Amino acid sequence: MLYNYFYKFTLIFFISIISINLTLSKDRELLNKQDNLSTTPNGPEVSFFSESFESGSLTPWTSVDETSVPPQWHLSDWMAYGGSGMSWWMADPTFGTNGGYDNSWYQVIDTDPIALSGLGLQLSFYQRYSVEGSGGEPAGYDGWDGINVRISTDGGSTWSVLTSPTPAYTATSLYSFGVAHGEGTGMPGWNDTQDTWTLTTFDLSAYDGQNVNIRFAFASDEAYSTNDGAPSFFGWQVDDIMVTNSSTTLFSNDGTSSQMTASNNAATGADLWKIVANDASDGTYYASCNNSSDTYEPNMQNSLTSDWFYLNQYSSNIYMDFDLRGTWSDNDAFPAVDFFGAFVQVQGESVLRYVSNITGDAGGSNYVYSDASDTWLAFSGTYSVGLIDLTPLKGSVIRIIFIFFSDEDAPIGEAVQIDNVQVWADEVLPVELTSFNASTNNSGIVMLNWSTASEVNNQMFEIERRNDLTDYATIGFVEGKGTTSEQHQYSYVDKNAKTGTYYYRLKQIDFGGKYEYSSEVIVDVKGPLTFKLDQNYPNPFNPSTTIKYSIPENGHVKLAVFNMLGEEVSTLVNGQFEAGFYETNFDASNLPSGAYIYRLEAPGSVQIKKMLLLK
Q: Using CA atoms, how far apart are residues 531 and 550, in angstroms rounded to an integer?
């Protein structure tokens, strides 16, 4: 069965999703692995990731017991009370925007024993917090994640929630404490966000004459945390903790490490992922989340994570699928059931993306799965999600994560088993272009440079240029490298760009005639500031040489060559020209060796240079 963890907005929404997917789970029984073949796109396939576990080892996959979380209460100067010093902070500072928490945490920090006596006994502290708010809880609960303060009168063996704080608790029954961590209904606490430091007090008069410990307790449920869709949740901060009577201070901690002990209070599960031989979906081996008795353990949150791998940005469509089976069962109502989830993580992001909502849309469907077939079936043929479309992530580095969750009940059946994990594209375009840029030296020359990370069947690049008044036209060609996995650098020089704005693009053509266009780059070619005649090159020459010149204004231009007697022997240019950079070729095949003068003339300007013809 497939359930939606769509951020728990309303109970009505939950019920409708469960009802819909009860029908979908019946469809699952009609599908088998052969049926699933019809969901795979036709055409040539290129594999980006393939894992059938035939090495007989989990490596390079990583198995982690996510319930085995180290203590997260620590001293920090981030947003500390009073603007300086240290405050106690319940968070992993590497999570989210500023730090925060993950799913299924139960983190506490306890004071050393405090002897209470006297009149006016009171606990006071300053706090700020940001955790999941209320909305859509099951019956009996009015909040999801939350925090509260507790007291023990027997040295920490048992704890009771302190009630009637000022300001009051915002929820009377928190799901995180009650269901996710098995404490039942009626566990009050604060939730949502209190961003400013707030003085909070409790009356401790009822405990006069007793030795007590005070506990600050935080709990999160199985979904929607800093690391799962809410990067702004920063957890809980506490400072200036004091226990006083009307005349003296009995306990004080203003952000120092003494007299406080942090711990993980969550029930730990197990790390069970391993490789099993025989009866695999494909080959001999598969990955199983079961113990030696072919079942699993209570309170599990056991993840299996692949290596990072790259999704080629020049792929047309990218898909993922895998085979699975399992017979786990839980007679309770969702969400208090055993289930597994399939996720993708993009490198650089802390939040996991559900494979049913690969774009991470806030209104998308975040499905988890409370059952599976008892025989091997493809994921795409087992649940209504179908073939997993990773196309929106092309160009990203990603990894795959499977997580099996169980609650505190005695396990029933076998946990999830995974085999034949595949990520592929139906086609990859032949060239992976990593850069393309244009620059000018303001001498009428534009330099184009581009690089490729890999090439497949690449015949050539065709260079195309346009301006604001013309369409793209081909101005040159550069030969490709065929097929290569090495990085290559390319360049092309456009010597014929006049003053103005130009747009360039590459047309990559393979040996079969298929082609793809790059994005375009833009360059502004500035006009010359001065009238200038350059020295010919080469010089001396035989029999031809190139003469470059620039004119700053539109007008009539003449470029002519003279012998040493002052006789004009060749007219190279004679006409109207726009301002810009120019070059022309002088062929002296019919002239004798010797020195010659070349003269550039424009309205109000004349320049002369000498050149030498040697035959």
A: 6
State the sign of the Cα–Cα–Cα–Cα dihedral 409, 412, 414, 416. negative
Transcribe 449-481 into DSSP letters. Answer: EEEEEEEEEEEEEEEEEE-TTS--EEEEEEEEE
Q: Is 230 contained in some domain?
A: no
User: What is the spatial distance between Cα 385 and Cα 264, in angstroms, rounded to a whole number?
Assistant: 36
Which domain range does residue 156 map to?
75-176+200-224+236-264
Of 287 and 458, the structure prediction assigns the larger pLDDT to 287
User: Do 417 and 435 fall into the same domain?
Assistant: no
Kindly report the CATH number assigned to the domain that includes residue 148.
Answer: 2.60.120
Coil, strand or helix at 437 = strand
On whether both 9 and 62 belong to a single domain, the answer is yes
Q: What is the pLDDT of residues 522-532, one digit of tens each?
A: 998 877 778 99
Instruction: Verify that 42 and 164 share a domain, yes or no.
Output: no
Which tokens go with 525? Answer: 């070619």
478 and 510, same domain (yes or no): yes
Question: Which two tokens mark 438?
Answer: 């244009």
* pLDDT-derived band at 428, boundaries 50, 70, 90: low
Number of H helices, E strands in the chain: 3, 41
What distance in Å separates the CA atoms of residue 27 and residue 21, rounded to the nearest whole number?
10
What pLDDT was estimated at residue 526? 79
For the chain, how many structural domains are there in total? 4
Q: Predicted confidence band at 7 (pLDDT cuts at 50, 70, 90)?
A: very low
Cβ neighbours for 359, distance < 8 A, ≥ 6 positions apart:
353, 392
Using CA atoms, how far residue 75 sits from 201, 240, 299, in Å, is: 22, 13, 29
